[in-house]
Design a protein that fits this description.
About 30% of the residues lie in helices and about 30% in strands. The protein is α+β, with helices and mostly antiparallel strands.
Length: about 190
Amino acid sequence: MRREDAVDLLIGARLAELRAQHGWSLGELAERSGVSRSTLSRAERAETSPTAALLNRLCHVYGRTMSQLLSEVEAAPAPLVRAADQQVWQDRASGFVRRSVSPPHTGLRGELVEGRLAPGADIAYDRPPLPGLEQHLWLLEGALEVTAGDRVHRLAAGDCLRMRVTGATRFRCAGPDEARYVLAVVRP
């Protein structure tokens, strides 16, 4: 089994567990998240790899960041995580690769994430996983267009964008090369 498939199985099981903890049916979760019952069911059974947008909607409903969700499917947290052991998750549909750089720990407010977007990749989130989330995006390579609300920011390598996320956001790889960035996320 590929590592990506194993991660999808763990994520699916955790999503099913969260829904059960809340006592929600698939229909109730579908109403709360705006995601169809069939998509939720396929994600929980790991029949499909969940997209970043889908996970974002579910994180919003469950009141956690994506890093928190991903850390919940890992082994016990440690103060140091080697590069080879950092959790990597890929949204195959959009060309987005996400590496959890920080050692996972649900009790901490801050975390570092490495993001990679393939040329032409375009990811839209209709809401933040947690309202008021603070993000600092430092673009290491490539070009990136970030839309927060009605403001569009065009970033080049070395630029850093700070934003408090309260509404819709969009990340688009604007150049011919991959965009690689570090995202510092601070929970409110």
